[in-house]
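Handout for the seminar on molecular recognition.
Each group receives one record of this type.
Step one: identify the two inputs.
Step two: read the structure output and locate the region that could contact nicotinamide-adenine-dinucleotide.
Step three: write two sentences on what you found, then compare them with the reference statements printed after the record.
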Amino acid sequence: MTDFQKEILEGIPQDRLPEAKPYEAKINHAPKRKDILSQEQKALALKNALRYFPAKFHEALAPEFAKELKDYGRIYMYRFRPSYEIYARPIDQYPCKCRQAAAIMAMIQNNLDPRVAQHPHELIIYGGNGAIFQNWAQYRLTMKYLAEMTQEQTLAMYSGHPMGLFPSRKDAPRVVVTNGMVIPNYSSKDDYERFNAMGVSQYGQMTAGSYMYIGPQGIVHGTTITVMNAARKQLKARGIEGSRENMKGLLFVSAGLGGMSGAQPKAGNIAGVVSVIAEINPLAARKRYEQGWVDELHDNLDELVPRIRKAVSDKEIVSLSYVGNVVDLWERLVKEDIHVDLGSDQTSLHNPLAGGYYPVGLSFEEGKRMMAEEPEKFKEAVEASLRRQVAAINTLAEKGMYFFDYGNAFLLEASRAGADIMEGGHFRYPSYVQDIMGPLYFDYGFGPFRWVCMSEDPKDLAKTDEIAAAVLHEEARTAPEEIRGQMHDNIHWIEEAAKNKLVVGSQARILYADCEGRTKIALGFNEAIRRGEISAPIVLGRDHHDVSGTDSPFRETSNIYDGSQFTADMAVQNVIGDAFRGATWVSIHNGGGVGWGEVVNGGFGMVIDGSEDSARHIREMLFWDVNNGIARRSWARNEGAGSAIRREMERTPELKVTLPEIAGEDLVNKAIKEIF
Ligand SMILES: NC(=O)c1ccc[n+]([C@@H]2O[C@H](COP(=O)([O-])OP(=O)(O)OC[C@H]3O[C@@H](n4cnc5c(N)ncnc54)[C@H](O)[C@@H]3O)[C@@H](O)[C@H]2O)c1
């Protein structure tokens, strides 16, 4: 047995205390969280932390954990970080009694890989507060349960805490994950800070707390589609054809080189534009630069401005980063009268007051200090900064820039900050879902399908790319006109994927496929595993940011216009339905993307191993997983979804969906006017 296996099976050591670990300065650490607990609640937090450990260690651990709570605002239990390296090893290297559990361990390892995770020592995967576990005791216990689990057990995960293994059956999910599920009236941001500091709830983001994060690649495809379609919109408005050639020389400006936002420069390069992305945290900027995700780093605007002008006039395909505050960048662009074609923002505004957004006028370090020590002053600085940012954006938009919200609650938080962002009771700018992802993708069932090769062998990944490309070519031959463009972009994506070196961490791929595509691709993989052409099982999954998985009125469901965008039935239905149709694990979260209390979202993971059972799970579960959302979008009178669900009913006679009758606008308005 390897040391790695022994340490997993040991779980929480019962007769020794691991040595205290030094706080490593070169690691990107989470900011200190605000001091929100009363004295009584602090005691509760400590008691909660100590319940993971034998009583004989409480005397030693109590002051250590209390100090962590004081210094960091959370009890992470740093001492219990494992001594082995964390990264996705091939599936055969995990101690296990069932391969499904080994696959889940590999996915957890990948989320926490320091090349992948944003703040790996604080178990934060992306988005500033997107957690996989709240502390290292939960991690150790979960890995041990997974190593011991049989195919007749299910592990219940409560916001990172493993409640235990419960008897179930082979076809049931191996793990059921809930994150941040609180009573709705207790879902304010401060409630979150409090519950999280007490160790009883966590913000799972989307793929962080559900073990489905695959590094920034997970978001590159969606970002590429968004940038390309935004460019097409911009070109169309000028009467120019939306070809790739014509996109060259367009200037795209945004902020954030973090977990998800780090995809922006890569997507800009794939689309062929010039991108300029601001990033305040030098460590985050350097990480993306070293990984080859951004071409140049600049910390001086006097240097950057002529560089931008040259890149645009030479129609270079290049991504430049401004290592500094995005507000300084926007204001300088205004001052220099530089024409910006596409603008957005991907700072973590779902979490504006706890490290997601750094106000202008303060260095990164000063910002962090003020956030922890003077939270009220910090809030004012954030709001003033957002007002300045919007003012500069408005000036450039008046000169023709197409600005869109990137699903980070930018418009929402800017409006709360009193920025000049409203027009006629609505936001001045669209969200990327309203204009692009909703009508062109989600309504037709296209979403961020993904897979991970459990051999961790790049040859297996290459084989899956080949299978996926063949399926898409075949599908495109009979696809209706309205989705042919999307199909061709997808084919281009998958054929270029290997060349673009997107893998960070595990051997994974993302592809925005529709129901037919996802199912045929997955069945193709299963068959290739059965024949031995792919050497190990594959994990299928998706981002929660999808057709059916997420109810989020300011993002995924922002193009739902029948008043139901504030309901969350779809996300809950989705997870329940996936659970009894063959998912290996399911998850449902409060918060993710736009913030705690603002969204309910869910997802799944499915291990396929070449068996007949896997083929059945693929057919049954993926069908529901996509069509549930299309049916709801169709019921909301979304045209594309209406035609997609009708097409699905023709393909699948057992599917019977309630379709809306469309009432004429004039008739409705007349009745309302006459009666009221
Ligand atoms: N568009 C999408 O499809 C999509 C998908 C997932 C997440 N998101 C949202 O995008 C946001 C970013 O996600 P992430 O995972 O990259 O988060 P992240 O926290 O890893 O990255 C955000 C980055 O913005 C930087 N930043 C903050 N304030 C800044 C400022 N004033 N100037 C310059 N840089 C600043 C931070 O240093 C950080 O590195 C989140 O709100 C997330 O929910 C969008």
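Reference statements: Residues 3-170+179-197 form one domain. The longest strand covers residues 600-608.
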